[in-house]
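Aim 2 progress update. The chain analyzed this quarter is reproduced below.
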Amino acid sequence: MQASPGAGRSTASDLCGSPRFVGRRAESAALAAALAGPPALVLVEGEAGIGKSRLVREALKSARTAGPRPLIAVCPPFREALTLGPVVEALRQGRQSVADLRLSALAGTLRPLFPEWSDSLPPPPEPLADARAARFRLLRALGELLDGSGVDVLVVEDVHWADEATLDFLMLLASRQSFSCTLVLTYRPEDVEPESPLLRLSSRRPPGGLVRIRLGGLPVAASAELVSSMLDDEHVSDAFAAFLHSRTEGVPLALEECVRLLRDRADLVRRGGEWIRRTLDDIAVPPTIRDAVAERVARLGPDARQVLLAAAVLTDPADDCALTAVSALPEARAAEGLREALGSGLLAEDHAGRAGFRHVLAAKVVYETAPAAARRHAHRRAAELLEAQGRRPVGRLARHFREAGETGRWRRYAEEAADLALASGDHLAAVTSLHALITDPGCPDAEVAPLVRKMPMHAFTGYARRDEITATLRAVLDSAALSGEERVEITAQVARLLLHGGDNASAAAELDKVAPELTAQTYPMVWAMTALGFPVDPSWPVAVHLGWLERAARALEHASVTPAERLSLAVDRLTALLDLGEEAGVTVTDGLGADSSHPPTAEHLARGSLNAGSGVMKWGHYADARRCLEAAAGIAGRHDYRRLKDMATLTLIHLDWHEGHWDGLEQRLAAWLDVDGEPLMRLDARLVAARLRAAHDGEQAPARAELGKVYEESLRRGMTDLAVEAAGALAAPALAAGRLEEALALTEEPVARLTRKGLWLWAADVAPPRVAALAATGRRPEAERLTSAFRRGVAGRRMPRQAAALRMCEAAVLAGRGDMAAAADAWQEAALAWQALPVPYEALRCREQRAHALLAAGQPDQAWGELTAVRDGFASLGAAGDAARTAEVLLRSGPARRTPPWRGGRRGYGDQLSPRELEVVRLMLDGLTNREIAAALSRSPKTVAAQLNSAMRKHGVSTRTALAVRVTRDGTATASGE
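Predicted structure tokens:
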């Protein structure tokens, strides 16, 4: 400290030490108790700069004499493709060799993570079938290494940046019965992803329990104590302490950076035995920590700044040699620069004498404010240093070479990192590396398509960056001089991505472009031929698609493809055959096999089971469909192919709709109605939800509008199977309501399309309402021709769904001829056919039509009995709208004495009002509006409206006034309340 004798005051320019650890007595005691007791799980949370790392390190320092051996891992602020990077790097830093450890054969799985220890590790074990089992084995081996190293406390800092595999490892450690070490995890709660496994860790209960420590800003007194500790424990004026606290909210890092910056500016003076500001107006404190750090760094010498940049590039604490190498300074100057950097307080030394940034925010500031050329050179030196050390952390090497501008070496290591991630089942890391490689402007044209082929697209639902890859492929097609084979492969990958994105029509257009060039016998060529067999082109008849499948089969006989590629093509072939309504598809399905033990085949087997289940569901083989779909969900779940599992789950929901398992269906659908990036899944969910709503509420405008939107978008995207189901769902109630021209308009385009293609698999939903509308409008010859064409189209095929729909068409034709007795018999046969599948909703609708035919045939007793059973069946199923329609027919056409009264609703209260409905009706009789009733009963207006609607249905009325008259006349409100 320098004194100015004349003025009796001093500055802080040479007096600004490291801050003492203050203000955390309760938190320190809680952490110390956890470290001293049995193994525990400690979660330390707080915002950036709040002092999480300082708290942990001070506690470890105090506990060191008691014997616990800590291992500290730090998660860097970027995703590394190297699996388990933070923990692996910490173990590598913590020991030189594993030769002295007695490891089991399980440790052989660690060879890819620690290549430098291969001579001391057991031989690699046989590959495991299941990707999850393989990852679990790897995590267990890492846990064994941790135990063998005698680690008592594992500290993982900044877990909000942890890669997926590291989080899985922490979950494993926290779930083990033999909880052998204390876990201390620090993180920023605001940066934790909503789906992060970190949020589930708190459910674990180790022997020492769960200790949660939340750090907030220091109070004014503690802030003053921290500042004083930096200024030789001299008193800090109350005004100065309050000033700093108001600017920093007591965040320790912000306090420290502001004091150091004010020191550097000579804005602090000592007067009268205490430290004060010069004047309030003269001191400008930067608004952010970043600005404070940037200004402080600028005041250091060039060698110190070079060492700081080296430390920022390396990210982890490094020894003198590494910092000297990456800074490119002579040894003496590097040592002096390091001394100055340590003196500035930006760097600190750990227990092993390695220097690193005290806080990641400071590292980011140093890195981002350094000249771009300096960063590139430092990254190149860091990469060469890692290569020279003999170990190959491919993720870090890829990052360093990429930032260095060494494109060729970056691409090599990035692809190695992706391959390693794929082999270990770390799909997220693989996609991260592959996406960067594919979208890199310097990617050689010939490498783009093979890299895209490696993308585990089925691992993620709604992959948000699919369009970027498609754009890259299109750019290559537009700008590069490609051979015919290269053009085919890239176009095939564009089509593949479009199919993944639910744009079947655009995919077909892309494949049409290269159809004349499909001459070679390579995998891309055979795939393109097979894809042309998918019935997505609206103009091609089935025979053309079958011709492409035959060409693909012949080319495959002579093609050089891997077993996994052959299996993938088999899946594509069965998908096309089933969607074309060809029996051969079932044979291919049976030949797939069920062995999902080898990870490269698991994706194809899961996809094959999914597509087989979806395909045979369209045929009406519902038991087989459920078996295939459940198998697909199981395989995809075990191997982390999330998209395939989600698609299988959603298709099972669609199957439950057909089979009448409607309880809870609306809630199960909710998660899929707005799923991003997956039009097929979203449209499928919206279709089922709208059909469910229409059945429940009757033919209401919202359900019709939603079905119309699904129809239009499905047709535009080339998803004809969804479009025809939506069209049928719109046409059937229009027909029932007597809007015959509307039913004809709705079915005209779908029927024209399926007739043009000769694809009668699609006819089950739209042919029956169209035939019935044609017959009812005097166009019986057209109805008969369509029915005959449908019959020929499904002849000899095991399609029970289409067979039931065909019988509906035949019944409608008989009704059009006026032969109502025969029509009634045909409707009964159709109902039995639907019930055998089972599709109870369609069976009930056919029985309803049978009842109408019986009435027309002069058999009212049978008709009324059938209508009563249909009404009850609809109510039991949950189709309240259909039940109400049937009840109205009974009221109009049958004498009340012959027909037991029914007033809607399921059979829980029969025709009586439920207690909650009764409460609503009573308040309605008092003259209250729906909103006033809702407020009085603490219910939503929507719930009140639904309960009033139910009461109206039970009393066979449609207005509030009529309901009031009916319940007053019947004494319902009084009787029910007694």
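The radius of gyration is 36 Å. The longest strand covers residues 182-187. These observations will guide the mutagenesis experiments scheduled for the next reporting period.
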